[in-house]
Amino acid sequence: MTPATLCLDREVIRMGRLSGKVAVITGGASGIAYGVVEMYVSEGAKIIVADIQAEKGAQLERRFAGTVYFNACDIRNEEDIARTMAMAEEKFGGLDVVVHAAASVDHKQKIADITVEDWDDGQANLLRSHVMCIKHAVGPMQRRGGGSVILVSSAAAENFSPAASVLYVVCKGAVLYLARWAAFELASCKIRVNAIVPGPFATSMWGQLVGASREVADAMPVHLDEMMAGSQPLPIAGKPQDIAYAATYLGSDEARFVTGAQLAVDGGLSVFRPAVPKEKIMDYLQRAKVQAEEDLRSMGKSA
Question: Which end of the chain, N or C, is surrounded by fewer C-beta atoms within 10 Å?
Answer without folding.
Answer: N
